[in-house]
């Protein structure tokens, strides 16, 4: 005899490939033709695809669903990921510059996750913060197109910073996959 469960049934919006998030014609990450030319363009495209994936995983959810925590005692939520990545984008600018560090957006320790509460104003602010911080970090890095250039107090290579950005988004997109499935059962890469 089956058990009753509050867990949502797994589903996908895709009809062409059932393991995908969306059909190719509806997926902004699905491009025709050859890939980008050169290492920097490739890194930028991968980063943008992961950023898009995160936004896609959050689409169509209300404030309560975005703020829903995964598995206790974890504080992770989709809203927390948006806030965390805004904080991380700001921190990466600290790596690029050699001046005084920019202040934290949300406070110390896990404030980015702890403050991810089911309030539409918090959701709107998280999206605005993320967009602003991404644009600011992109603009700061655009001043350093040589991937071998070393920047900031720690003299980190631009290439290393770009790869680290991709890694951070990729890791959190994996979290977003699981978080979204817990919220409403939707699956797909």
Automatic annotation (TrEMBL):
Region described as Disordered: spans on this chain: 1-39
Protein origin, superkingdom: Bacteria
Protein name as annotated: DinB superfamily protein
Species of origin: Streptomyces radiopugnans
């Amino acid at each position: 005899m089956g058990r009753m469960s509050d867990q949502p049934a797994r589903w996908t919006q895709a009809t062409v490939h059932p393991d995908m998030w969306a059909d190719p014609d509806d997926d902004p990450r699905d491009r025709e033709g050859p890939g980008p030319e050169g290492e920097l363009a490739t890194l930028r495209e991968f980063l943008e695809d992961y950023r898009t994936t995160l936004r896609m995983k959050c689409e169509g959810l209300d404030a309560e669903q975005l703020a829903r925590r995964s598995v206790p005692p974890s504080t992770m939520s989709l809203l927390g990921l948006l806030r965390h990545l805004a904080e991380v984008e700001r921190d990466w600018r600290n790596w690029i510059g050699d001046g005084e560090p920019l202040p934290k957006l949300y406070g110390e320790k896990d404030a980015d996750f702890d403050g991810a509460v089911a309030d539409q104003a918090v959701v709107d602010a998280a999206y605005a913060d993320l967009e602003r911080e991404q644009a600011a970090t992109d603009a700061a890095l655009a001043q350093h197109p040589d991937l071998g250039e070393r920047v900031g107090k720690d003299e980190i290579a631009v290439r290393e910073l770009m790869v680290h950005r991709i890694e951070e988004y990729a890791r959190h997109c994996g979290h977003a996959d699981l978080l979204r499935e817990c919220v409403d059962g939707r699956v797909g890469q």
